[in-house]
Specification:
Blueprint (H helix, E strand, L loop, with lengths): L7 E2 H8 L3 H9 L7 E2 L6 E3 L3 H13 L4 H9 L3 H36 L9 E5 L2 E10 L5 H15 L9 E5 L9 E9 L10 E5 L2 E9 L5 H14 L8 E6 L11 E7 L4
Helix pairs in contact: 3-4
InterPro entries: AraC_E-bd, DNA-bd_dom_put_sf, GyrI-like, MerR-type_HTH_dom, MerR_fam, Reg_factor_effector_dom_sf
Keywords: DNA-binding
Protein name: MerR family transcriptional regulator
Length: about 270
């Protein structure tokens, strides 16, 4: 029996492997999957049946996002450690890419919200906050989104310090960096207490004098925070004010109500004396 009669024609191999003839030729050119025989007279290509297993692996590697050069390397490799390391590296890269895509989708949603117009917020006002006694915890965090870890650390310290809270007291967070930072952010969370107390380190006690602030209150989730800070920025510029570190007062916080539509956040910038 002629050797070619024991092989699969390229069209049949294409159907069985689910790889187009064009891609089979492409893979041949790049050393990924070569025909078993090429007829020297007419150039027809033939494959062995046992090459289908390699072809299926090639398809899986392609669908996993590997470049053709890497597919050629892995499909021909006899080192399981090398293959496992490449798969782990690809998994980590795809996971990071998925996170970036999620972040971009979230940003796209915010663009849609912003284009709808003004968020639910109060007008910007100039007001004076009363003197207060505060318990506070200040640390450098990986990002602004890690603020919750400070609150988790703070609550046991408050209990150990035996503090009491006034009716209608407030809590908040101050962002001490003079500029926006991508990482290593200086954040202080604080809560109003009845009076002086002896704190358990790293918890601190401080008395705050009355302070004049520029503020506006956001009603709802934090996606529209840039609109609020934009309105405050316009007010500061219009009135030529000098301001200190921004802080939020959580009138209704996520800890109090998990429903974002119920959150009430007063955004404040203390006005510095001329």
């Amino acid at each position: 029996m002629d050797q070619e009669e024991q092989l699969l024609k390229i069209g049949t191999f294409s159907t069985l492997s689910r790889i187009s003839i064009r891609m089979l030729r492409h893979y041949h050119e790049h050393g990924v999957l070569s025909p078993a025989v090429i007829d020297p007279f007419n150039g027809h290509r033939f494959y062995r049946a046992d090459q289908l297993m390699q072809a299926h692996l090639v398809v899986q590697l392609r669908e996993a996002g590997f470049a053709v050069e890497k597919i050629a390397q892995l499909a021909q490799s006899s080192d399981p450690v090398q293959v496992a390391a490449a798969i782990t590296q690809q998994r980590e890269m795809l996971s990071a890419e998925r996170e970036r895509l999620h972040e971009r989708l979230a940003a796209l949603d915010l663009v849609s919200i912003t284009l709808k117009g003004r968020p639910e917020m109060t007008d910007v006002t100039l007001t004076t906050l009363p003197a207060m006694h505060l318990a506070s915890l200040r640390e450098t965090l990986p990002s602004y989104g890690d603020e919750g870890t400070l609150w988790e650390e703070m609550w046991p310290l408050l209990q150990q310090s035996g503090v009491a809270f006034p009716a209608g007291g407030i809590s908040g967070a101050t962002f001490h960096d003079p500029e926006f930072r991508e990482s290593d952010v200086d954040v202080e969370v604080w809560i109003q207490v009845d009076g002086p107390f002896t704190p358990i380190a790293p918890l601190e006690y401080r008395a705050v004098a009355p302070q004049k602030v520029v503020s506006a209150t956001l009603l709802g989730d934090y996606s529209q925070m840039p609109a609020v800070t934009g309105a405050i920025g316009a007010y500061i510029a219009e009135h030529a004010l000098s301001t200190g570190p921004m802080f939020n007062i959580y009138r209704v916080s996520p800890a109090q109500n998990p429903d974002p539509s119920s959150w009430v956040t007063e955004v404040c910038f203390p006005v510095l004396a001329d």
